[in-house]
Amino acid sequence: MTLKAVKEKNEFLEWVKVIGIALLFAVGIRMFILTPIVVDGASMMPTVEDGDKVIVNKIGPKLTEYNRFDVIVFEAKEDTNYIKRIIGIPGDHIAYENDELFINGERYEEPYLEEYKKALLDNDTLTGDFTLEENLGETTVPDGTFFVLGDNRRDSTDSRDPRVGFVSEEKILGTAKIVFLPLDNLKIIK
């Protein structure tokens, strides 16, 4: 083998190594840190719309904790993930009255719903009255679980439905932080 052939072979092997490491790095990031998902449905409108592609941060919340009003993606059923907003954390008592959120008896603002409330043509409420006791038979959100709602309260299957109920922390894939496609919807999720 000539010196030139040996150099070409070594250069080829170096490129294979670099490409292999890059692929492993990309797969690792996608599997363990950030992953894109496509939103299917209108339950989080206007925050996130049907067909939007969002980036889910899988590792951040696992290092800290999930907070009230985080938008999360969780496994609802086998092979079915939902995207919703955390409203209640463990120990919270949740109630809605006259389209206003009450957590532990204190009224909370939901600025992410203002645009949707203004768009209601029938001047009715966006979120119907309910309490945890009425919907799920609990007085507070149990330990290790969260109470979640879609921002499109009139068209969302969420914790108000006993088939979904409280979301176990183990079922949460991560927080949705960024809409990256389509480009005209590019934004940070608040």
What features would you describe in this structure?
By secondary structure, the protein is an alpha+beta fold. Helix content is 24%, strand content 31%. The chain is built from four helices and twelve strands. It has helices at 3-32, 60-63, 114-119, 132-136, and strands at 34-38, 53-57, 71-77, 80-88, 94-97, 100-103, 106-108, 130-131, 145-149, 167-168, 172-181, 187-188. Strands 1, 2, 3, 4, 9, 10, 11 and 12 form an eight-stranded antiparallel sheet that branches. Strands 7-6-5-8 form a four-stranded antiparallel sheet. The protein is elongated and about 85 Å long. It starts with a helix and ends with a strand.
Structural class: alpha+beta
The total strand number stands at 12
Biggest beta sheet attributes? 8 strands, antiparallel
Described by the principal axes of the CA atoms, the overall outline is: elongated
Mean pLDDT across the residues is 86
Q: Which spans have pLDDT < 50 for at least 5 consecutive residues?
A: none
Proportion in β-strands:
25-35%
Q: Compute the gyration radius: what is it?
A: 22 Å
Residue share in helix: 10-25%
Distance between the termini: 62 Å
